[in-house]
Amino acid sequence: MTDAPAPQTFQMDGHDVAFAPGQSIMTAALAAGRYIPHLCFHPEFTAHGSCKVCTVKVNGQPHASCTTPARAGDVIESDTDELTQLRLNLVQFLFTEGNHFCPSCEKSGGCTLQGVAYELGMTTEHFSPLFPDRPVDASHPDVLLDFNRCILCELCIRASAIHDQKHVFALSGRGITKHLIVNAESGRLADTALALSDKAMTVCPVGVILRKRQGFAVPIGQRPYDRQPISAVATAHPDPEDGHE
Amino acid sequence: MSERAREPATVPRRKLRVATASLAGCFGCHMSLLDIDERLVDLLELIELDASPLTDKKRCGPCDLGLIEGGLCNAENVHTLRAMRANCKILVAVGACALNGGLPAQRNHIDVRDCLQTAYLSGPGVERGFIPNDPELPLPLAQVHPLHDVVKIDYFLAGCPPSAEAIWQFLTDLIAGRTPVTTHGLIRYD
Amino acid sequence: MTTLDLAAMLQRHGGDATRLVQILHEVTAALGYVPPATITELAARLGVSRAHVEGVVGFYSFFSAEPQGRFRVRFSDNITDQMAGSHALCQRMLDAFRLELGEVSRDGLVSIARTSCTGLCDQGPALLVNDRAIARLTPQRIGAICSLIRGEVPLAQWPENLFAIHSHVERRDRILAAVMQPGEGLAAAVARGAAATIAELERSGLRGRGGAGYPTGAKWAACAATPGPERYVVCNADEGEPGTFKDRELLAHHAELVIEGMTVAAFAVGAQRGLIYLRAEYPFLVAPLLELLERRRAAGLLGRAVGGVAGFAFDIELHVGAGAYVCGEESALIESLEGKRGIPRNRPPYPVTHGYRQRPTVVNNVETLAAAALVARDGADAVRGQGTPKSAGTKLLSVAGDVARPGIYEYPFGVTVRQVLDDAGAVGSQAVQVGGPSGTLLAAREFGRRIAFEDVPSAGAFMVFDQGRDMVAVVENFARFFAHESCGFCTPCRVGTTLAAQMMTRIATGVGSRRDVKDLARVAGVMKAASHCGLGATAGAPVVAALEKFRPAFDQRLRSLDVVPTFDLDLALAPAREATARDDLAAHLDEEGP
After folding, report:
1. pTM of the predicted protein model
2. Tell me, what's the ipTM?
3. Which CATH number is A9-79 given?
4. Domain covering A84-213 in this structure, CATH number
5. What are the structural domains, with CATH classification, of chain B?
6. Distance (Å) from the C-alpha of residue A199 to the closest C-alpha of chain C?
7. CB distance C182 to C258 below 8 Å
8. What CA–CA distance (Å, rounded) separates C423 from C98?
9. Which of C566, C578, C587 is facing B113, going by the closest CB pair?
10. Whole-angstrom distance, CA of residue A65 vs CA of residue A32
11. What pLDDT score was predicted for residue C563?
């Protein structure tokens, strides 16, 4: 073993993208400064590919870029009208599914769902909103859970299980009734082991897990996606989801 | 006559007739329209207002363009929206409430019956209350709906409210016959 | 209700959290539901988080954390049940108990709901009551069931004939006509050797019968080639595709052949344990299967030194699903076997290398295993000699709907749709749904097409619709099915199936518009392009096919070509009318507008 092997590359939208063994299309693309819209992907956690917003075409076939291993010679399409339309529809699905009222949300301006929707040029949810009934959980002294905004990305579940070793969050139900639950017979966050210092407190891409008494701290106009589009934020910092807590 | 038909580009543009309405909203979008400030003068060179809270004309006549803020909260909102749709060639949903129900839609998980009973019969401080039942009062819908749930909407202008800049950009595009473009900073949901 | 000794019960399950689905079945049988306090105790005793147990309870249709009736009635809601009058029969029972669908009677006696196809399409309408299935429902049978429930007669004392499941085999070929002595297939495999058995299977051209058609020999070879301390063979008996009931027949009357196939597979790939994942809708198969496994143990065909082969230890256990169609997908099935929510895994890696407990695992459909047993005994040429170049052997079809003789038909691959229709006595058919809702919708002009992987592949369903049927109602039933069965993992399927079902219901009930038709196509496209697994990828297929082949049926049902409200405007004023006691003209909204 003398020389380091030449870096392997795939092609994405006409550009060569180098990757290291074990990287996904997503991680390789982000490292190369090429943004692929995404919601449930977080660089610190194993990708699971549920939101499907990062769908790209690999040699003509659609795949979630966060769970698809990078492979030398593959031809990837990402920034195409067809895929933008697909991603836009998926984001519209998410807005339709939950209760997303940005004007009254503490996360507005720093919300990944909102940022991705701006990026995709979403002007309307298009579909008829489902208006689910999702009561908030204000039982915890320091934390508010507003399930209305949950997009079921499972980042808090992964953070609490893997990083915090607490399993505070999980999913129940299935299909359109799938919903976030907390680890307590009472169903109340106050009766779980969640602490403010938990990683799970910092990973929510939308406005579900909120510190009490800290809303609207950043003035409008200075929030992350006021200043520049999420594509610029995400490729400027390797870890955009953490950038605004 | 035939001269003109051959040279349509030289025809002086007539003013577009525009109606506006506020349904279940806060008039914030109308206020933001006024916030285009001195450009209002330019705008009024290009449009004339039909039914609008700004003219206090109630019944909408045939219009080129309709701008509606607010969602659908009650029967009257539905009538107004339908009259606008019937009269406007282009109908625009303006602002968060028109787009997805907005703040008023946060009542959607509350049963209207419970709400009226609590407010008028059983709530704190209510004595010998009764639920208003005058036929003049529009009845609330079971849920607040966005405009596109009931009629076809041609364009959507997001924001709470959309900024004066976004409104100006949007209107000048529409009036000039261009498909409105929405670049970063002009689409805002809050 | 009986009480439950949780500690003793868990001890029987070895305190093993991967047996959670089986444990929850026992809790439900004893208590009628899984009370929150029981969830807490189960989690503590099994050493898993409470939220995990709650999540599993919440995932499966047949579990509930809310009290259910002591008699839990579930009407099968396949389109063939619906065509045979199930909705009216269900309403009859609801009326008898003055209940709404999904409601529990106030005295806790009975709850009545609908469930996805229970696999009795040849003898529908059907229902489940607790863990018993009842077929061939009539108003008289519904009356009898209501009386028994009202009298609180324990299910064990209900007349046995109520629970009779008939067998309707209308055409036998290689598999259904086979007579195999227990151990015969295994003996042939042992004589040939493990590697040669896999080679023989590859040479036979046998492809998976569950729908996807993956070459069985290649699957076994990949599993055998993966190093590891243990391997597993899983029989996928989660026959959830609506309209399919051929595995029911195989397990009821040819189970010996299926178990023989599992044993051959275990020998070939070097597996020590086998698992049968049986859908909960087939409770009547549990006892016979357990007895068969016992018989084979007694005969030395399971256990240590199986078939007299020194060092070949193999045994099989039975797992019962809990009402989740998605668990028919092999990686979701494995998750369920491990006591989790049935969410399809990301692949690669595939189950052949990282399956049950992350070990190399072969998952085969019931029919595939039966066919494999015959390959082992009779050799590859016998299978190759039947069918078409890319589809060797025979296929069992579950024929139901508008035919004179519903039942199981076994044909060599390549049979035309028209041939099947003629044999089953179908008259005036306008459409056939081959392979169930996730399969292919064929119009009459396509009845010359053939059942084969190279033309119309099929997991086994063959539902026939005559000219009197409303194809919009058929597709609406399918759309509701997918919405009910979406696991909810990925956005396109979770939201798309629900939006599609809502739009189909609007169209089917005559309040849809052309916007719904356009949006249906859009939603179907999103689901197909972006879904995580086959459920979502195919959920839009019936809609797309029906829009292509039966578009006039849709257009005739539209209220308007223009956009119309997505909800009933006048109905939306009803709560306020009630609260204000108003009924004047202004208290109503007409649907047409100004």
Report:
1. 0.95
2. 0.95
3. 3.10.20.740
4. 3.30.70.20
5. 16-109+142-175 (3.40.50.700)
6. 18
7. no
8. 44
9. C578
10. 14
11. 86
